[in-house]
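Request: When convenient, would you put together a sequence paired with its structure tokens?
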Amino acid sequence: MERPPVEQEQPELTQEQLSELLQIRRDKLSDLQAAGKDPFANTTYDVSDFSSDILAAPAPQEGEHGKIVSIAGRMISRRIMGKASFAHLLDAKGRIQVYCKRDDLGEEEYNAFKTFDIGDIVGVKGYVFVTRTGEISVHAQEIILLSKSLRPLPEKYHGLKDAELRYRQRFVDLIVNPEVRDMFQKRSRIITEIRRRMDERGFIEVETPVLNTTASGASARPFVTHHNTLDLDMYLRIATELHLKECVVGGLERVYEIGRLFRNEGMDAMHNPEFTTIEAYQAYTDYNGMMELAEDLISRCCMAVNGKTQITYQEQAIDLTPPFARVTMNEAVKNATGVDFYGCATDEEAREKAKALKLEVKDKTATKGKLLAEAFDAFVEDTLIQPTFIIDYPVEISPLSKRKPKEPHLTERFELFIAGHEYANAFSELNDPVDQRGRFVQQAQERAKGDDEAMMIDEDFCLALEYGLPPTGGIGIGIDRLVMLLTDAATIRDVLLFPTMKPVK
């Protein structure tokens, strides 16, 4: 009654067939336990080797015995041929063939092996050899059941074609889809490379609170929770920025944090309510220094997982070799639309220009800066395929960024766009406590008018600034989006092990 190996395409199981298979496996477990061979009683197994290491090592000559190995993993296929059988084992580093022969294992152990099910976790000890077809394999001298799988694996072509099911049952997705395991191994290498490079550049990694009494550091709608003991509403952090800059005030002049942020906003191919970023702050530099840091990190991560800085993302050729292009927001909009918003004499003239572009202007008092940002979103962002720093943002939408000395209506801020999406946001950090408080007040006024993404006033941060923040550059890079880019993933849910999902009723 057992299903064929997962590699072979088979008709989808009916509910009745599935129920029968589930019962057969439970009966097998009961028989094992009754015989004093409970597989769940196993606590350890001496694993000395892994599939990819065995396959990468020099192979023994045909007919010769290679090194003795001890491996363990999930049995994902099996072919029984009387007195000898073949199986494939999936371990942490890949898959390898195992050859089982009754004369070597003994009749009792061989018969026990024939009762194993696809999906069972087994341990194998034996020697490496090469089959007549040239496949490097392990000739088993011992094979034992380490854990019983009570549920059959889905057939690859039917059981996991539903993307929703893959995300809900990621554990099964990882078992049957090697490209998914590869994706998350690359994600790990990307994060490791970021940490390694940041450490080389003299940064230290710190941790800041996830629960906060104010939601600030970004323009976003927060998640609200309640602390029972303190009888206090709190917010899951929407950014790590303010706490990290407080570290710089305290003398930790190069700090970063890789961590989860939480924003109670929409979900689409590029957005998940919880996501991972790196935020970093460096004293005595500005947004130009952060551009160089972004180029360095992204190009090195690309090299770490792809071996080169030229990639294809969703059928678009992209070159991540530094330096990246740099264009002011006003120049980008002017090039795309012909409209120079900062060339307008008044905000009213700018609003008329926006209407002529068919921009929906809900705010009847919208300024040049806000209109410029809306025009950028509408006409420019999705056209930026090659990596491009859009620099010099309007002060109205940059409450934490330092003004440009000779153009106070602009700030020293950039966002990095690749393949039509934002990947990084950075500033020359505002360190004037009076200006900062004024901008927080302005944000609070926007919040009072109904903008639930406007920032709250963070009194602790205002206090810290009064002690003196040195000239500082700061940056945030979305790690999930970076992984998407470097692994050619179409949606953020592909690069999150457990994306946010609506419960099944």
User: Anything to note?
Assistant: Residues 177-324+386-494 form a domain with the BirA Bifunctional Protein; domain 2 fold (CATH 3.30.930.10).
